[in-house]
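Example 484, ligand DCS.
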Amino acid sequence: MAAVVAVENLNPKVLKCEYAVRGEIVIHAQRLQQQLQTQPGSLPFEDILYCNIGNPQSLGQQPVTFFREVLALCDHPSLLEKEETKSLFSADAISRAKQILAAIPGRATGAYSHSQGIKGLRDAIAAGIAERDGFPANADDIFITDGASPGVHMMMQLLIRDEKDGILCPIPQYPLYSASIALHGGTLVPYYLDESTGWGLKTSDLKKQLDEARSQGIDVRALVVINPGNPTGQVLAEENQYDIVKFCESEGLVLLADEVYQENVYVDDKKFNSFKKIVRAMGYGEDDLPLVSFQSVSKGYYGECGKRGGYFEITGFSAPVREQVYKIASVNLCSNITGQILASLVMNPPKPGDESYAAYKAEKDGIVESLKRRAKSLEDAFNKLEGFSCNKAEGAMYVFPQIRLPQKAIEAAKAAGKAPDAFYALRLLEATGIVVVPGSGFGQTIETLGFIFYCDVLARLSMSPGHGTSGAQSCHRRTRSLQS
Ligand SMILES: Cc1ncc(COP(=O)(O)O)c(CN[C@@H]2CONC2=O)c1O
């Protein structure tokens, strides 16, 4: 009798879905990690260095003290009645916790909340957006989510009717998008970022890809822009953003603006502008352009990936459509309250004059400076490695170096039934314990570029000799030895 549940009788959309950031290389790394535990010394390195995912606190980054003080007090409100609390927590964390609890029905972080998130927290997020952009924001436009990922899934669920509906996505792209489009049965319409211009985005290329898709009967619904970029790390120039908004408005596309790295800009000649700010600065009003802006507590200087907080701000949609978005959100009841509180704190951190401001600012600046330093170190190290080239890491948390592999390595990869970049990433892992993601996992094709892989900048480069650039160099030598 056929198995009740087998791969053969699963939802084909699930089978089609892939997510390289936690794919084959990571699974193999976990096996090697097991081996190191059961057979210490059996591999040429002491531990695994996960550079496949932007997970700062797993690599030693500390959470922001003020944020955690407020979370602790909100989760254990009876502390607020104790005299000794005043000697353990800052006065502004105590007052912020009281303010947040007053906004929560029953003052209970264990209760369900409104499906868009607690109104008082959405007010705080809207105030933070308005202060960031210099344009009004409305709490009713905010949907607080368990990280940005569920928000992206909700938008794909809303917009994709069948495989005839397409979503324009950057290549290389963060594979949440290709995975979500596959899961919802739509079509990914690629547009290619140009490595030779620092991963630039030309609207002429967008138009070419859009017309090509439409000629094949695809109804392109939306354009995804990730700014700062993942995996490419570029920060869009302001004029480029104006072009993108005009393109979406003239082509009737929803603009899905993924801005989770908005606090991760490392170069002095670029700054982050939200698309909400650009749209308003261009004079577009509430009804002119459907725009969804995604934010997360997982990135920036806060790096609270495991707390699962984030939101999307939705503007330019009609009331009946917004009711449908609310309906989808309500099916999941609400997002977790810790993530909701964190999202409001991230958008409304301590201000000058607050008791915690000096300590908060020192922590924030220290983390951003460290990320900036490590991004530059890794970019320089890859550019010094024979056969590598690496674009400037302008922002986000990753570098995306290109490697020219010798023909013999390419042939060996083919013989092993692997894409050359995946072959190299596996060899790098087995030689040094460093986990990176092959560029093919982000949609990069060999025709587009050489072979690239994705490496987060989080790893402390002062790692033991088995890691860091020396590790990469030793592996690179081993891979190139295939020539001999
Ligand atoms: C561009 C982008 N959007 C959305 C997300 C989802 O974030 P949350 O759901 O945690 O809010 C990530 C996570 N970054 C992944 C995770 O680590 N490395 C990555 O590339 C991301 O890089």
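Summary: The mean pLDDT is 90.
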